[in-house]
Amino acid sequence: xxSLFAFGRRRFTVGGLVVAAWGxxxxxxNARPAGAQGGVQMQKQGGMQMQKSGATQKxxxxxxxxxxxxxxxxxxxxxxxxxxxxxxKLTIETTGGGTKNVPWVISRDNDVVIxxxxxxxxxxxxxxxxxxxxxxxxxAHDFYGEVDPQxxxxxxxxxxxxxxxxxxxxxxSDWPRWLAAAKTGAKTAVSRWQAQAMLVGITINGPVxxxxxxxxxxxxxxxxxxxxxxxxxxxxxxxxxxAVNDTWRAWTDTIRVxxxxxxxxxxxxxxxxxxxxxxxxxxxxxLAQDPGKLAPGALASRIRAxxxxxxxxxxxxxxxxxxxxxxxxxxxxIPICQITNVMGKGRIPSxxxxxxxxxxxxxxxxxxxxxxxxxxxxxxxx
Length: 382
Prior knowledge:
The protein is an alpha+beta fold.
C-alpha cells in the first residue's frame, strides 16, 4: 500500500511538471508582441514538442511594374510631289502602373523637329496615336518618331531601345512637270541663241570661205529659269541646264565652213579693199559638223551624270523622252536653217591699176556680228 502510494505520488509529480511546463509555454506565447519574429513555436507531431523557429517575414502583396512608354508603330502617308501634304502618325504604347505625362516628337532628316508635344495623364496599359502634317519639299527625306526623348520617365537605358521608331524614307519629285518646263526653257534658250549666235574667224581667199567657229550664248540659263519656275530646286535645275548646254556646245564647237564659194565677187575685185559683202545663203547642213554630239543617249547620260541621286527619283525615266525630243527637233532644224548675212571683207594685194585693175581677196575675214542663224526657227516636236 505504501509502495503504491509512493508510485502514485511519483506519477502525480511527473504529470504536474508536464502541465506546469505547458502553462509556462502558453504564457510565453501569449506574451509575444504583435508582429514579433522568432521565438518559441509549438508543433504537435505524434505528441507534444517544443521547437525554436528561425525568423519569419510577413507576406507583402506584389507591387505594380514601373510605368513605361514605347513606340508601337510609325506611319507616313500621303503626298508624292513637292507641295503635297504628308501625314505622320506615331502610335505609343504604355505598360505598368500609375499615370504619367508622356512627351513625344516627330522629326525628319538630321533631327529637324516637325512637331513635339506631351500627352498628359496617360495611364499604364494604354495605346494612343499622335500625328502631325508636313508640306513636302523636293528630294529624299527620312521621318521618325520618338517617345520621351529626354527620358523624363526615368527608364533604364537598357530598356530604351524601343523608344524611337525606324526611319521611313520618302522621295518627293515632280519630274513630269519639270520636264515639260525644260522643254519650254529649251525653246526659249535656242531662240535666243539663234538671235545672238555668229560665225567668227572665217578665212577668205578669193571667193572661198574656210574654217571659222561658232560663238553663241549659253542655253542653260533659260532652262534653269524654267525649271525653278516649275518648283525644281535651284542647284538641281542648274545641273540640268548645264547638261543640255554642254551637249549643245559639244555640237556647235564642231561647226566649220568647209571651203565654200561664199563670196563670188572676191575672185576678181576691182579695188584695193573689198568692202563687207554677205555670203551666199547656205543650209546649216552644208557646214562641216558632227551631229552625233546631239545623240539622245549622249544628252540623257549627261543629264543623269549631272543630277546625281535625282536620276532615281520617281518619274526620272522621262529624261530619255526629253533627250529624244530635243535631239530630234534640232536634227530636223539643221537642214532647213540657212546661214546668211556673214559679212566678208579683205584686201586685194595684187590690185595695181592700170596694169592690174582687178584681183582676188587674200587672207580676208568676216565681221563678227549676230544674225547668221536666224533664217528659220526650230521646228520643235510636240
